[in-house]
Amino acid sequence: MDCIKVFAPGTVANVACGFDVIGLAMDAPGDEMILRRSSEPGIRITAIHGADLPTDPAKNVASVAVQALLQKYEQPDLGIEIEIFKKIHPGSGIGSSAASSAGAVVGVNHLLGEPFTKKQLVRFAMEGERLACGSAHADNVAPAILGGFTLVRSYRPLDITSLHTPEELWVTVIHPQIEVKTSDAREILKQKVLMTDAIRQWGNVGALVAALYQEDYDLISRSLEDVIVEPVRAILIPAFYELKLKCKEAGALGGGISGSGPSVFMLSKGEENARNVAAMMDTVYAPLGVDYKIYVSRINTAGVKVID
Q: Between vectors from CA 107 to CA 133 and to CA 120, what angle results, nearest 5°?
């Protein structure tokens, strides 16, 4: 195989109480990428459509992730061409850099005959995240590659597990067209937390994991509470608390800030509730004078998919 086309899904990381450990993949939006073997040594970004991003292989997350894969494959000079069709806006908080990193390593792995497992690919994609924000985190790239909900138990050693995805669970995301850089959003976080807050957060994380397996939507709703990070970052997002309140009134189970923002996600039981939540998001944001996009999606349980 000399050429492949893949779909790389957007993702929601920091799923409420699951800061830096729980993420999920969406069916939409997502990037598309074409990857080709080349007789010319080295990785080249041949074109980027839909966003103004660097084509220098040392400065693009997709090529950096692929280089990590080729280094482990022991053919660091293998010729690879990458063409990227960006549908996820950079800085949106729904895994733009993760989609590029994940899509690239999954695609190249296919071109090479799949020498690496999906979990091994996560480590390579994390190098793209290191370039993007200075931290090789996995809570976006893991669900992008593995699909569904994922939990990062540990980074040293890297230990990632897939979680059960209830069949009726949907996600609605609003992306205000403002930029919140991950590095800036991390700078405002507190370095110490109260023990009482930590205990409450641990309880919510454990309950959320249990609720996903039990398909207990009421428990999912009660568990979608972040008492540590959300109170600090909420100031970065227009009308955040009003949006959360109104969306729950419209039928959402709950939600929070997607990644480092500015996107906000809400989980719902069933498509009808998810679309009602989207309508409420529109009602809240329409008067604010802020451009925005709204996405309604099933949870993507497949991760990056070969489409051509």
A: 65
Dihedral sign of CA atoms 111, 117, 119, 124 in order: negative
Please name which of 173, 175, 185 lies closest in space to residue 290, comparing C-alpha atoms.
175
Residue 211: predicted pLDDT = 98
- What is the structure's pLDDT at 186? 60
CB atoms within 10 A of CB 259: 29
Q: Which residues in the chain show pLDDT less than 70? A: 179-190, 308
The pair of three-digit structure tokens given for residue 162, joined into one six-digit string: 């897939």
> Which residues have a catalytic role annotated?
129, 182
How buried is 167 (Cβ within 10 angstroms: 0-12 exposed, 13-18 middle, 19+ buried)? Answer: exposed
- What does DSSP say about strands 18-38 and 3-15: parallel, antiparallel, or unpaired? antiparallel
Tens of pLDDT along 254-307? 999 998 889 999 999 999 999 999 999 999 999 999 999 999 999 999 999 999
CA distance 105 to 91: 21
- The helix (run of H) or strand (run of E) holding residue 80 is strand 79-85
How far is residue 11's CA from residue 95's CA, in Å, rounded to a whole number?
Answer: 5
Q: Is 171 helix (H, G, I), strand (E, B) or coil?
A: strand
Do you find a cis peptide bond into 29, omega within 30 degrees of 0? yes
Give the end-to-end CA distance of the chain in Å, rounded to a whole number: 11
